[in-house]
Write a structure and sequence with these properties.
Number of helices: 6
Order of helices and strands: EHEEEHEEHEHHH
Distance between the termini: 31 Å
Strand content: 15-25%
Shape: globular
Number of domains: 1
Strand order of the largest sheet: 2-3-4-1-5-7-6
CATH class: Alpha Beta
CATH superfamily: Peptidyl-tRNA hydrolase
CATH topology: Rossmann fold
Largest sheet: 7 strands, mixed
Structural class: alpha/beta
Number of strands: 7
Radius of gyration: 15 Å
CATH architecture: 3-Layer(aba) Sandwich
């Protein structure tokens, strides 16, 4: 399995920077930084796009600047133009079902209420068969708090755990490209924040 496109999900604009919903793009920027891949705005693909090498393999990075619920409007055309199959795409996103300090890989599955994933699935021809790297953000107490929760910044103690998980996620990318998804998955499964 070769990953040819890494997408980091989030909302554009400084007011959304480092909020829970932007953890995906935060990790993607960290990957870009580590591997020296520069991103530039490309209106053709509704996002910030970069191309570079990770562990000797060419890869494209994208941050859809369409707002979360239209992420597919960026990823769909990009994948289509460069003939990148869904199984060659890795989408990095925030995950309510994982606690802060946990990051996990997953292949396929439904959107689970995540509007960014819903949009991507629709724009890939209703295909769910792409890889996800999920960054745990935990859940609010009630559903009524959901919007404020995902668009808010975590408190300091939670943010420290999330930062450790984000670092571990970036480390796992090296394994993904030099070994395989199973090795990267095992590394993250064995990771515990706060140790």
């Amino acid at each position: 399995m070769t990953v040819k496109l890494i997408a980091g999900l989030g909302n554009p604009g400084s007011e959304y920077a480092h909020t829970r919903h932007n953890m995906g793009v935060d990790v993607m920027y960290m990957i870009a930084d580590r591997y020296g891949i520069s991103l530039r705005t490309d209106s053709k693909y509704n996002g910030e796009v970069g191309r570079g090498m990770i562990e000797g393999q060419e890869v494209r990075l994208v941050f859809p600047t369409t707002y979360m619920n239209k992420s597919g409007d960026s990823i769909g055309p990009l994948a289509n133009f460069f003939k990148i199959k869904p199984e060659e795409i890795l989408v990095i996103h925030d995950e309510l079902d994982l606690p802060p300090g946990v990051a996990k890989y997953k292949l396929g599955g439904g959107p689970g209420g995540h509007n960014g994933l819903k949009s991507i699935i629709a724009c890939l021809g209703n295909c769910q068969n792409f890889h996800r790297l999920r960054i745990g953000i935990g859940k609010p107490v009630t559903r009524a708090e959901m919007i404020n929760f995902v668009l808010g910044k975590p408190p300091k103690a939670e943010m420290e755990l999330i930062e450790q998980a984000k670092q571990a996620a970036v480390e796992s990318i090296g394994l993904l490209f030099t070994q395989n998804i199973a090795k990267a998955t095992n590394m993250l499964n064995g990771f515990k924040a706060g140790r």
